[in-house]
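Input (structure):
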Protein backbone atom coordinates (compact mmCIF):
# COMPACT_ATOMS: atom_id res chain seq x y z
CA UNK A 1 0.00 0.00 0.00
CA UNK A 2 1.19 3.46 -0.91
CA UNK A 3 1.63 5.76 2.05
CA UNK A 4 0.24 9.13 0.98
CA UNK A 5 2.06 12.11 2.42
CA UNK A 6 -0.25 15.00 1.54
CA UNK A 7 -3.64 15.91 0.13
CA UNK A 8 -4.21 18.60 -2.46
CA UNK A 9 -7.62 20.24 -2.07
CA UNK A 10 -9.33 22.20 -4.84
CA UNK A 11 -11.91 24.79 -3.88
CA UNK A 12 -15.60 24.75 -4.80
CA UNK A 13 -17.89 27.50 -5.96
CA UNK A 14 -15.53 30.35 -5.26
CA UNK A 15 -16.54 33.92 -5.80
CA UNK A 16 -13.37 35.17 -7.36
CA UNK A 17 -13.28 38.61 -5.76
CA UNK A 18 -10.83 39.66 -3.05
CA UNK A 19 -12.54 39.73 0.34
CA UNK A 20 -15.05 36.94 -0.40
CA UNK A 21 -12.32 34.71 -1.65
CA UNK A 22 -10.22 35.32 1.42
CA UNK A 23 -13.20 34.62 3.66
CA UNK A 24 -14.02 31.42 1.75
CA UNK A 25 -10.47 30.09 2.04
CA UNK A 26 -10.07 31.16 5.67
CA UNK A 27 -13.34 29.49 6.71
CA UNK A 28 -12.56 26.34 4.78
CA UNK A 29 -9.15 26.08 6.41
CA UNK A 30 -10.77 26.57 9.84
CA UNK A 31 -13.42 23.94 9.13
CA UNK A 32 -10.87 21.42 7.85
CA UNK A 33 -8.76 22.07 10.96
CA UNK A 34 -11.84 21.39 13.13
CA UNK A 35 -12.73 18.06 11.54
CA UNK A 36 -9.11 16.88 11.67
CA UNK A 37 -8.30 18.19 15.14
CA UNK A 38 -7.65 14.76 16.60
CA UNK A 39 -4.65 14.43 14.26
CA UNK A 40 -2.29 17.03 15.76
CA UNK A 41 0.54 15.97 13.42
CA UNK A 42 -1.34 17.30 10.36
CA UNK A 43 -0.38 20.69 8.87
CA UNK A 44 -2.84 22.72 6.83
CA UNK A 45 -1.58 25.27 4.30
CA UNK A 46 -4.38 27.29 2.68
CA UNK A 47 -3.18 28.97 -0.51
CA UNK A 48 -4.87 31.21 -3.02
CA UNK A 49 -5.61 28.49 -5.59
CA UNK A 50 -5.67 25.31 -3.50
CA UNK A 51 -5.03 23.94 -0.05
CA UNK A 52 -2.28 21.50 0.91
CA UNK A 53 -2.78 19.16 3.83
CA UNK A 54 0.51 17.64 4.95
CA UNK A 55 -0.26 14.33 6.67
CA UNK A 56 3.00 13.73 8.58
CA UNK A 57 2.06 10.08 9.05
CA UNK A 58 -1.71 10.45 9.57
CA UNK A 59 -3.68 7.76 7.67
CA UNK A 60 -5.22 9.03 4.43
CA UNK A 61 -8.13 6.55 4.62
CA UNK A 62 -9.51 8.26 7.73
CA UNK A 63 -8.78 11.80 6.48
CA UNK A 64 -10.61 10.87 3.27
CA UNK A 65 -13.82 10.02 5.18
CA UNK A 66 -13.76 13.38 6.96
CA UNK A 67 -12.97 15.51 3.90
CA UNK A 68 -15.96 13.98 2.08
CA UNK A 69 -18.18 15.90 4.51
CA UNK A 70 -16.57 19.33 4.35
CA UNK A 71 -18.56 21.87 2.33
CA UNK A 72 -16.55 24.07 -0.02
CA UNK A 73 -14.31 21.26 -1.30
CA UNK A 74 -14.78 20.55 -5.00
CA UNK A 75 -12.18 17.80 -5.49
CA UNK A 76 -9.05 16.52 -3.77
CA UNK A 77 -6.16 14.24 -4.53
CA UNK A 78 -3.90 12.30 -2.20
CA UNK A 79 -0.25 12.63 -3.22
CA UNK A 80 3.13 11.11 -2.36
CA UNK A 81 6.23 13.19 -1.88
CA UNK A 82 9.36 11.55 -3.29
CA UNK A 83 13.01 12.46 -3.95
CA UNK A 84 13.81 14.25 -7.23
CA UNK A 85 15.29 11.37 -9.21
CA UNK A 86 13.97 9.67 -12.33
CA UNK A 87 14.33 6.31 -10.64
CA UNK A 88 12.09 7.32 -7.72
CA UNK A 89 9.53 8.88 -10.05
CA UNK A 90 9.30 5.73 -12.14
CA UNK A 91 9.23 3.32 -9.22
CA UNK A 92 6.51 5.17 -7.29
CA UNK A 93 4.48 5.90 -10.43
CA UNK A 94 4.34 2.16 -11.06
CA UNK A 95 3.25 1.44 -7.47
CA UNK A 96 0.51 4.07 -7.67
CA UNK A 97 -0.73 2.81 -11.02
CA UNK A 98 -0.81 -0.78 -9.83
CA UNK A 99 -3.13 0.26 -7.00
CA UNK A 100 -5.67 2.01 -9.21
CA UNK A 101 -5.36 0.35 -12.62
CA UNK A 102 -7.98 -2.21 -13.63
CA UNK A 103 -8.05 -4.21 -16.88
CA UNK A 104 -9.20 -2.06 -19.78
CA UNK A 105 -8.53 1.35 -18.19
CA UNK A 106 -6.81 4.12 -20.14
CA UNK A 107 -4.31 6.62 -18.75
CA UNK A 108 -2.13 9.60 -19.42
CA UNK A 109 0.80 11.24 -17.68
CA UNK A 110 0.53 14.93 -16.90
CA UNK A 111 3.68 16.65 -15.67
CA UNK A 112 3.93 20.17 -14.22
CA UNK A 113 7.19 21.76 -13.30
CA UNK A 114 7.81 24.77 -11.08
CA UNK A 115 11.49 23.87 -10.73
CA UNK A 116 12.70 24.76 -14.22
CA UNK A 117 16.24 23.68 -13.43
CA UNK A 118 15.20 20.04 -13.07
CA UNK A 119 17.16 17.90 -15.54
CA UNK A 120 14.08 16.74 -17.52
CA UNK A 121 11.33 18.95 -18.92
CA UNK A 122 7.62 18.11 -18.80
CA UNK A 123 7.52 16.49 -22.25
CA UNK A 124 10.47 14.28 -21.53
CA UNK A 125 9.00 13.18 -18.23
CA UNK A 126 5.60 12.44 -19.78
CA UNK A 127 7.23 10.22 -22.38
CA UNK A 128 9.79 8.48 -20.14
CA UNK A 129 7.38 7.67 -17.33
CA UNK A 130 4.67 6.65 -19.82
CA UNK A 131 7.10 4.24 -21.52
CA UNK A 132 8.20 2.83 -18.19
CA UNK A 133 4.59 2.10 -17.23
CA UNK A 134 3.87 0.48 -20.64
CA UNK A 135 6.84 -1.81 -20.08
CA UNK A 136 5.65 -2.90 -16.64
CA UNK A 137 1.83 -3.11 -16.87
CA UNK A 138 0.12 -5.40 -19.38
CA UNK A 139 -2.64 -4.04 -21.60
CA UNK A 140 -2.22 -0.45 -20.47
CA UNK A 141 -3.56 2.01 -23.05
CA UNK A 142 -2.81 5.70 -23.42
CA UNK A 143 -5.66 8.13 -24.05
CA UNK A 144 -5.11 11.88 -24.24
CA UNK A 145 -8.68 13.26 -24.26
CA UNK A 146 -10.67 11.29 -21.69
CA UNK A 147 -8.34 8.97 -19.80
CA UNK A 148 -9.65 6.92 -16.85
CA UNK A 149 -6.53 7.68 -14.84
CA UNK A 150 -4.38 10.79 -14.93
CA UNK A 151 -0.99 10.32 -13.32
CA UNK A 152 0.06 13.79 -12.16
CA UNK A 153 3.74 14.52 -11.65
CA UNK A 154 4.60 17.84 -10.03
CA UNK A 155 8.24 18.81 -9.92
CA UNK A 156 8.53 21.45 -7.19
CA UNK A 157 11.57 23.01 -5.56
CA UNK A 158 11.59 20.77 -2.49
CA UNK A 159 10.55 17.44 -4.03
CA UNK A 160 8.45 15.64 -6.62
CA UNK A 161 4.77 14.99 -5.88
CA UNK A 162 2.82 12.16 -7.51
CA UNK A 163 -0.92 11.54 -7.54
CA UNK A 164 -3.35 9.60 -9.68
CA UNK A 165 -6.75 9.99 -8.05
CA UNK A 166 -9.33 12.73 -8.27
CA UNK A 167 -11.89 12.42 -5.50
CA UNK A 168 -15.11 14.47 -5.57
CA UNK A 169 -15.99 16.49 -2.48
CA UNK A 170 -19.52 17.60 -1.50
CA UNK A 171 -19.18 21.07 -3.03
CA UNK A 172 -21.20 23.91 -1.55
CA UNK A 173 -19.81 26.78 0.53
CA UNK A 174 -17.76 26.52 3.74
CA UNK A 175 -20.03 26.59 6.79
CA UNK A 176 -19.92 30.11 8.25
CA UNK A 177 -19.43 32.05 5.02
CA UNK A 178 -23.18 32.80 4.79
CA UNK A 179 -23.60 33.85 8.45
CA UNK A 180 -25.59 32.43 11.37
CA UNK A 181 -29.17 31.17 11.47
CA UNK A 182 -31.60 29.18 13.59
CA UNK A 183 -32.73 25.75 12.40
CA UNK A 184 -36.02 24.34 13.70
CA UNK A 185 -35.19 20.67 14.22
CA UNK A 186 -37.85 18.10 15.03
CA UNK A 187 -37.20 14.39 15.17
CA UNK A 188 -38.63 13.79 11.71
CA UNK A 189 -37.17 13.09 8.29
CA UNK A 190 -37.39 16.55 6.75
CA UNK A 191 -35.72 18.97 9.13
CA UNK A 192 -32.38 17.06 9.28
CA UNK A 193 -32.28 17.19 5.47
CA UNK A 194 -33.10 20.91 5.56
CA UNK A 195 -30.25 21.35 8.08
CA UNK A 196 -27.82 19.65 5.75
CA UNK A 197 -28.90 21.83 2.82
CA UNK A 198 -28.60 25.02 4.91
CA UNK A 199 -25.07 24.10 5.95
CA UNK A 200 -24.23 23.25 2.35
CA UNK A 201 -24.89 26.89 1.41
CA UNK A 202 -22.48 28.03 4.10
CA UNK A 203 -24.98 28.76 6.86
CA UNK A 204 -23.79 28.26 10.42
CA UNK A 205 -26.84 26.79 12.17
CA UNK A 206 -27.96 26.36 15.76
CA UNK A 207 -30.73 23.85 16.41
CA UNK A 208 -33.92 24.86 18.19
CA UNK A 209 -35.94 21.88 19.39
CA UNK A 210 -39.30 22.08 21.18
CA UNK A 211 -40.02 19.34 23.68
CA UNK A 212 -42.94 18.77 26.03
CA UNK A 213 -42.21 16.79 29.15
CA UNK A 214 -44.06 14.95 30.63
CA UNK A 215 -45.95 14.35 27.36
CA UNK A 216 -42.79 13.57 25.44
CA UNK A 217 -40.10 11.19 26.65
CA UNK A 218 -36.39 11.70 27.27
CA UNK A 219 -35.90 9.43 24.28
CA UNK A 220 -37.54 11.90 21.90
CA UNK A 221 -35.15 14.58 23.15
CA UNK A 222 -32.17 12.19 22.89
CA UNK A 223 -33.20 11.37 19.33
CA UNK A 224 -33.10 15.04 18.27
CA UNK A 225 -29.65 15.38 19.88
CA UNK A 226 -28.48 12.21 18.16
CA UNK A 227 -29.61 13.61 14.79
CA UNK A 228 -27.68 16.78 15.60
CA UNK A 229 -24.56 14.75 16.32
CA UNK A 230 -24.81 13.10 12.88
CA UNK A 231 -25.21 16.52 11.25
CA UNK A 232 -22.25 17.89 13.25
CA UNK A 233 -20.04 15.74 11.00
CA UNK A 234 -20.58 18.42 8.36
CA UNK A 235 -19.34 21.35 10.46
CA UNK A 236 -17.59 20.10 13.60
CA UNK A 237 -20.02 21.38 16.22
CA UNK A 238 -23.68 22.46 16.50
CA UNK A 239 -25.34 24.11 19.50
CA UNK A 240 -28.59 22.39 20.46
CA UNK A 241 -31.20 24.61 22.10
CA UNK A 242 -34.01 22.73 23.84
CA UNK A 243 -37.15 24.78 24.51
CA UNK A 244 -39.88 23.56 26.90
CA UNK A 245 -43.21 23.72 25.11
CA UNK A 246 -45.71 21.85 27.30
CA UNK A 247 -47.26 24.86 29.04
CA UNK A 248 -47.96 26.55 25.71
CA UNK A 249 -49.53 23.41 24.28
CA UNK A 250 -51.67 22.78 27.36
CA UNK A 251 -52.88 26.37 27.38
CA UNK A 252 -53.79 26.38 23.70
CA UNK A 253 -55.62 23.07 24.03
CA UNK A 254 -57.57 24.29 27.03
CA UNK A 255 -58.55 27.71 25.71
CA UNK A 256 -58.81 27.67 21.90
CA UNK A 257 -60.98 25.92 19.30
CA UNK A 258 -59.57 22.61 18.18
CA UNK A 259 -59.36 23.52 14.48
CA UNK A 260 -56.73 26.18 15.30
CA UNK A 261 -54.58 24.20 17.77
CA UNK A 262 -51.98 23.40 15.19
CA UNK A 263 -51.83 26.88 13.63
CA UNK A 264 -51.46 28.65 16.98
CA UNK A 265 -48.85 26.14 18.21
CA UNK A 266 -46.83 26.81 15.09
CA UNK A 267 -47.16 30.55 15.56
CA UNK A 268 -45.68 30.15 19.05
CA UNK A 269 -42.86 27.97 17.75
CA UNK A 270 -41.93 30.57 15.18
CA UNK A 271 -42.09 33.43 17.69
CA UNK A 272 -39.83 31.52 20.06
CA UNK A 273 -37.41 30.62 17.28
CA UNK A 274 -37.29 34.30 16.35
CA UNK A 275 -36.57 35.43 19.93
CA UNK A 276 -33.75 32.93 20.15
CA UNK A 277 -32.44 34.03 16.76
CA UNK A 278 -32.32 37.65 17.89
CA UNK A 279 -30.58 36.75 21.17
CA UNK A 280 -27.95 34.69 19.39
CA UNK A 281 -27.24 37.05 16.52
CA UNK A 282 -28.79 34.92 13.78
CA UNK A 283 -30.06 36.39 10.51
CA UNK A 284 -32.71 33.90 9.41
CA UNK A 285 -34.80 30.89 10.44
CA UNK A 286 -34.72 27.58 8.58
CA UNK A 287 -37.26 24.76 8.85
CA UNK A 288 -38.17 21.46 7.19
CA UNK A 289 -41.54 22.39 5.71
CA UNK A 290 -42.48 21.02 2.31
CA UNK A 291 -45.39 22.59 0.45
CA UNK A 292 -48.58 20.57 0.76
CA UNK A 293 -47.07 17.70 2.73
CA UNK A 294 -49.37 18.00 5.76
CA UNK A 295 -52.08 20.38 7.06
CA UNK A 296 -49.59 22.83 8.59
CA UNK A 297 -47.69 23.07 5.33
CA UNK A 298 -50.32 24.33 2.91
CA UNK A 299 -49.62 27.81 1.56
CA UNK A 300 -52.66 29.08 3.50
CA UNK A 301 -51.15 27.67 6.71
CA UNK A 302 -47.81 29.26 5.96
CA UNK A 303 -49.55 32.63 5.59
CA UNK A 304 -51.30 32.23 8.96
CA UNK A 305 -48.11 31.07 10.72
CA UNK A 306 -45.43 33.20 9.06
CA UNK A 307 -47.46 36.28 10.09
CA UNK A 308 -45.65 36.46 13.45
CA UNK A 309 -42.32 37.58 11.99
CA UNK A 310 -40.66 39.46 9.16
CA UNK A 311 -37.43 37.51 9.60
CA UNK A 312 -36.65 35.45 6.49
CA UNK A 313 -37.98 31.91 6.99
CA UNK A 314 -36.13 29.63 4.59
CA UNK A 315 -37.47 26.21 3.69
CA UNK A 316 -34.77 24.24 1.84
CA UNK A 317 -37.02 21.21 1.13
CA UNK A 318 -40.13 23.27 0.26
CA UNK A 319 -40.37 22.02 -3.30
CA UNK A 320 -38.99 18.52 -2.90
CA UNK A 321 -41.08 15.35 -3.07
CA UNK A 322 -41.05 13.09 -0.02
CA UNK A 323 -39.15 10.42 -2.01
CA UNK A 324 -36.45 12.95 -2.90
CA UNK A 325 -36.15 14.05 0.72
CA UNK A 326 -35.89 10.43 1.88
CA UNK A 327 -33.15 9.73 -0.66
CA UNK A 328 -31.09 12.62 0.71
CA UNK A 329 -31.81 11.56 4.30
CA UNK A 330 -30.38 8.14 3.47
CA UNK A 331 -27.32 9.65 1.82
CA UNK A 332 -26.48 11.85 4.82
CA UNK A 333 -27.16 9.08 7.32
CA UNK A 334 -30.15 10.50 9.23
CA UNK A 335 -33.00 8.40 7.78
CA UNK A 336 -32.75 5.29 9.98
CA UNK A 337 -32.78 7.41 13.10
CA UNK A 338 -35.57 9.71 11.89
CA UNK A 339 -37.97 6.82 11.41
CA UNK A 340 -37.54 5.56 14.99
CA UNK A 341 -40.93 6.05 16.65
CA UNK A 342 -40.22 8.42 19.53
CA UNK A 343 -42.98 10.95 19.31
CA UNK A 344 -42.16 14.63 19.54
CA UNK A 345 -44.30 17.44 20.85
CA UNK A 346 -46.33 17.95 17.65
CA UNK A 347 -47.66 14.43 17.36
CA UNK A 348 -48.88 14.44 20.95
CA UNK A 349 -51.02 17.57 20.67
CA UNK A 350 -52.03 17.10 17.05
CA UNK A 351 -55.74 17.76 16.65
CA UNK A 352 -57.61 15.05 14.74
CA UNK A 353 -58.81 17.53 12.10
CA UNK A 354 -56.48 20.52 11.78
CA UNK A 355 -57.64 23.22 9.39
CA UNK A 356 -55.78 23.00 6.12
CA UNK A 357 -56.92 26.51 5.25
CA UNK A 358 -56.74 28.49 8.49
CA UNK A 359 -57.73 32.16 8.27
CA UNK A 360 -55.13 34.73 9.22
CA UNK A 361 -57.55 37.04 11.04
CA UNK A 362 -58.98 34.14 13.07
CA UNK A 363 -55.48 32.96 14.01
CA UNK A 364 -54.63 36.46 15.24
CA UNK A 365 -57.89 36.79 17.12
CA UNK A 366 -57.58 33.44 18.94
CA UNK A 367 -53.94 33.96 19.81
CA UNK A 368 -54.75 37.35 21.31
CA UNK A 369 -56.96 35.63 23.91
CA UNK A 370 -53.82 34.17 25.52
CA UNK A 371 -51.08 35.72 27.61
CA UNK A 372 -48.66 35.41 24.71
CA UNK A 373 -45.84 37.39 26.32
CA UNK A 374 -46.00 35.47 29.62
CA UNK A 375 -46.01 32.10 27.89
CA UNK A 376 -43.08 33.06 25.71
CA UNK A 377 -41.08 34.47 28.59
CA UNK A 378 -41.52 31.33 30.69
CA UNK A 379 -40.51 29.10 27.78
CA UNK A 380 -37.45 31.30 27.15
CA UNK A 381 -36.51 31.00 30.83
CA UNK A 382 -36.44 27.20 30.53
CA UNK A 383 -34.09 26.99 27.56
CA UNK A 384 -31.14 24.61 27.75
CA UNK A 385 -28.15 24.88 25.41
CA UNK A 386 -25.85 21.92 24.70
CA UNK A 387 -22.88 21.99 22.31
CA UNK A 388 -22.98 18.80 20.23
CA UNK A 389 -20.06 17.18 18.40
CA UNK A 390 -19.80 14.39 15.78
CA UNK A 391 -20.25 10.79 16.93
CA UNK A 392 -21.53 11.53 20.42
CA UNK A 393 -23.86 8.97 21.95
CA UNK A 394 -27.23 10.16 23.27
CA UNK A 395 -29.82 7.58 22.33
CA UNK A 396 -27.89 4.46 23.43
CA UNK A 397 -27.28 6.03 26.83
CA UNK A 398 -30.97 6.81 27.12
CA UNK A 399 -32.02 3.28 26.19
CA UNK A 400 -29.54 1.94 28.77
CA UNK A 401 -30.98 4.18 31.50
CA UNK A 402 -34.46 2.93 30.71
CA UNK A 403 -33.30 -0.67 30.97
CA UNK A 404 -31.58 0.03 34.30
CA UNK A 405 -34.91 1.23 35.65
CA UNK A 406 -36.65 -2.05 34.86
P1 LIG B 1 -40.03 16.74 10.03
O1 LIG B 1 -39.91 15.48 9.27
O2 LIG B 1 -38.83 17.61 9.93
O3 LIG B 1 -40.50 16.55 11.44
P2 LIG B 1 -42.70 16.96 9.27
O4 LIG B 1 -43.02 16.59 7.90
O5 LIG B 1 -42.98 15.99 10.36
O6 LIG B 1 -41.20 17.49 9.33
P3 LIG B 1 -44.03 18.96 10.80
O7 LIG B 1 -44.02 18.06 11.98
O8 LIG B 1 -45.29 19.58 10.36
O9 LIG B 1 -43.47 18.29 9.50
O10 LIG B 1 -42.99 20.09 11.04
C1 LIG B 1 -42.65 21.02 10.05
C2 LIG B 1 -41.39 21.71 10.48
O11 LIG B 1 -41.60 22.43 11.70
C3 LIG B 1 -40.28 20.73 10.80
O12 LIG B 1 -39.58 20.32 9.65
C4 LIG B 1 -39.43 21.54 11.74
O13 LIG B 1 -38.62 22.46 11.02
C5 LIG B 1 -40.46 22.32 12.52
N1 LIG B 1 -40.78 21.57 13.75
C6 LIG B 1 -41.79 20.69 13.94
N2 LIG B 1 -41.73 20.17 15.18
C7 LIG B 1 -40.67 20.70 15.79
C8 LIG B 1 -40.08 20.57 17.10
N3 LIG B 1 -40.56 19.73 18.01
N4 LIG B 1 -38.98 21.30 17.36
C9 LIG B 1 -38.46 22.13 16.43
N5 LIG B 1 -38.96 22.30 15.22
C10 LIG B 1 -40.06 21.60 14.89
MG1 LIG C 1 -42.45 16.31 12.53
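Output (sequence):
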Amino acid sequence: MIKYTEVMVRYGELSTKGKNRKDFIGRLAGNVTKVLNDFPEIEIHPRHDRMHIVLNGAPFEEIDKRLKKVFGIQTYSPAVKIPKTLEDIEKTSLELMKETFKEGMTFKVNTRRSDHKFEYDTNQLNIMVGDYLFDHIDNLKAEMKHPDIVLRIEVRQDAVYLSNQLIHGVGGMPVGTAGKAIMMLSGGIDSPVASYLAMKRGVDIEMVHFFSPPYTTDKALAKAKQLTSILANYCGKINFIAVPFAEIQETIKEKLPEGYLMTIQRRFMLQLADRIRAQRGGLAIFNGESVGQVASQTLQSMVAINDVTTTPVIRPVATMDKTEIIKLAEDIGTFDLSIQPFEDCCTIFAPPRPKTKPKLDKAREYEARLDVEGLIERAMAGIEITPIYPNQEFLEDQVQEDMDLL
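Notes: Residues 184-186, 188-191, 208-210, 287-289, 293-294, 296-297, 344-346 surround adenosine-5'-triphosphate (ligand 1) (CB under 6 Å). The radius of gyration is 27 Å.
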